[in-house]
Amino acid sequence: MGDLALLRHQLSQLDRVAVAFSGGADSAFLAWVAHDTLGRDRVTAITAVSPSFAGFERHDCAALAAEWNLNWVEVATAEMENAAYRRNDADRCFHCKDALMDAIGPLALHDNATVVLGVNLDDLGDYRPGQQAAAQRGAGFPLVDAGFSKADVREVSRQLGLSTWDKPAAACLASRLPYGTPVTLRVLASVEQAETALRLLGFVDLRVRHYDNLARIEVPLAQIEAVVRLRGEVVAAVESAGYEYVTLDLAGLRSGNLNQALS
Q1: Quick one: which of 33, 93, 97, 187 could link to 133 by a disulfide (CB 3.0–4.6 Å)?
Q2: Run means of pLDDT, 10 residues per run, the chain, 263 residues
Q3: Where are any strands of DSSP class E within the chain?
Q4: Which residues does residue 216 pair with via DSSP β-bridges, in sequence order?
Q5: CA 25, CA 157: separation in Å to the nearest integer?
Q6: Do 16 and 43 contact (CB within 8 A), yes or no?
Q7: Of the candidates 91, 103, 116, which has an alpha carbon nearest to the alpha carbon of residue 48?
Q8: Using H for helix, E for strand and C for coil, what is the string for 203-251?
Q9: C-alpha distance across the termini of the chain, in Å
């Protein structure tokens, strides 16, 4: 189990932090604990806004910041201006986190703060070049240092009464594209539109994987029957986003499964 007292101690040692705040369970937990430990004046929760950041996630960040009285700011990131990012090779996440540090770094420097990310122990087992980019730029991973797994974050969040304890895992919209498929504004918009339409049908935990004019829907195994039952509405929702073919992955939702192509 992760050590909450150790996490608080580490944050106290840093004195001032800038938390990369995406609104997910990990970054929300880190932001709340930092705020609770150091106080509002020594913690800035910073949300990076770009075309790959879903609108509902941005709304969640604003709502949490208001609920918890966080010192919260938004900054625009410029990864889409980088041809290496748009090319969507296996190092796409490296360029994304590099752009994140470009945006957050100056704000942290102004406050003499350390940038911290909500990376947990489970994240270390997957292919995540973005972590390398952030570490090279001086970011810290206090959840890792305090021994927190994803399950630990959720359990301690539950004990603390945080509404994010059971929030489904999320990832940037670009992660829905197989490596080698160029990242464009049109494609990101199509993915977001399809996922938003499916959420309105009640599917909260999902991915719409983009394969040109074909969409592959992933939901937890327990919800596959519901997708089939609502087949007509599901197809219409995804087709409204511009896809010609709508498929359902019978293996279910698997976060980061496009990394399997790298092995």
Answers
A1: 97
A2: 94 97 96 98 97 95 98 96 96 92 93 95 78 83 96 98 93 95 98 97 96 98 98 98 98 74 50
A3: 17-20, 43-49, 72-76, 114-116, 207-211, 214-218, 245-248
A4: 209, 247
A5: 8
A6: yes
A7: 103
A8: CCCCEEEEECCEEEEECCHHHHHHHHHCHHHHHHHHHCCCCCEEEECCC
A9: 30
Q: Which two structure tokens, joined as six digits, stand for 248?
A: 């359902």
3-state SS assignment for residue 73: strand
**C-alpha span between 166 and 182 (Å, rounded):** 33
With 0.90 as the threshold, say if the pTM is over it: yes
Q: How many CA atoms are closer than 13 Å to the CA of 30, on its beta-carbon side?
A: 31
Q: How many Cα atoms within 13 Å fall on the side-chain side of residue 112?
A: 3
CA dist 224 and 195 (Å) reads 15
